[in-house]
Write a structure and sequence with these properties.
This protein is an alpha+beta fold. The protein contains 3 helices and 3 strands. A 3-stranded antiparallel β-sheet has the order 1-2-3. A hairpin with a 5-residue loop joins strand 2 and strand 3. The N terminus is likely disordered. The longest helix has 8 residues.
């Protein structure tokens, strides 16, 4: 969808309300939009290395750490917050504001 309202400034990655909205996305919402995928029995497929597609299906796990939802892979040791997951999925640099 294209924003045709010229009076509205474009959203930037540094926009605090946008960041807060992205941080509150649930694992079910991430999965329904194809950002993460459930692994075989439990956990999720790691977006960085793809671990979790084997028979044990234990690639990445989502935990709440200090109020921030973190996805952590047990194979490659990558960790992502929701913004990092979106950046990885869309091949973006999450560090740029």
């Amino acid at each position: 969808m294209v924003n045709t309202n010229n009076n509205t400034a474009p959203m930037k990655a540094g926009n605090n309300s946008l960041k807060e909205s992205l941080k509150s996305i649930t694992p079910a919402e991430l999965e329904s939009h194809g950002i993460i995928q459930h692994a075989g029995r439990k956990g999720y497929i790691c977006p960085a290395c793809g671990n979790g597609t084997g028979k044990d299906g234990t690639g990445a796990e989502i935990n709440l750490v200090d109020g921030v939802q973190i996805t952590h892979c047990f194979k490659c040791d990558a960790s992502f917050d929701n913004i990092g997951l979106l950046a990885e999925h869309f091949n973006l640099d999450a560090k740029n504001d």
